[in-house]
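Example 3.
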Amino acid sequence: MKITRLSPQLIPGVERLIGMGAPYLRLRGSSDYWLYSQLFSSTCPVALDDGQVLGVVIAFRSQDDPDDVYIQDVVTHPDHRRRGLTRRLLGSVRHQAEEWACRRLYLTSEPENTAAHAAWLAIGFTNMPGDRVDHGVSVIENYKGPGMDRAVYEWLIR
Ligand SMILES: CC(C)(COP(=O)(O)OP(=O)(O)OC[C@H]1O[C@@H](n2cnc3c(N)ncnc32)[C@H](O)[C@@H]1OP(=O)(O)O)[C@@H](O)C(=O)NCCC(=O)NCCS
């Protein structure tokens, strides 16, 4: 198993994998993945085993606040979960963020996504205080716009 950067030839495999992330992940258009591979590949690591895409993280360094790296999508293959793939992939994004001297990585997930909540906490993220607690998770109301409540997590670097 190796970790490599997102590149155009990996996009079909990444799309197949992201399709397995339902209901929490939404597949975007192929041109979006092309864009990520061209502009953000250093924060979009892919786990590959014998040519098969088993995991991916899509993340971006903020232009508005370059101290921040935002993680948009995380998914691993259903047959390869609980094997540390997400830990490795997020570790690789963190390593890049450290090289840039960023302050933190952050992400959001839906409060009912208990596997994601457990993974973020185990890996080192903190669930940021919110407006209410849902499924034992702090949730910020309307975080991504009206009606789009999210649990928000951050992993501090400095
Ligand atoms: C959430 C998800 C990305 C975790 O990926 P993963 O590769 O299984 O995570 P890891 O193996 O690196 O897990 C690291 C730690 O997180 C915790 N963890 C991960 N999944 C867990 C689960 N289902 N239940 C409890 N703890 C869990 C464990 O502590 C684990 O360490 P351990 O296995 O040594 O105990 C994966 O379940 C997934 O792809 N889900 C569908 C897509 C999704 O919901 N993505 C997040 C929304 S953006």
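The longest strand covers residues 52-61. The beta strands are 2-5, 45-49, 52-61, 68-76, 104-109, 126-127, 132-134, 137-139, 151-156.
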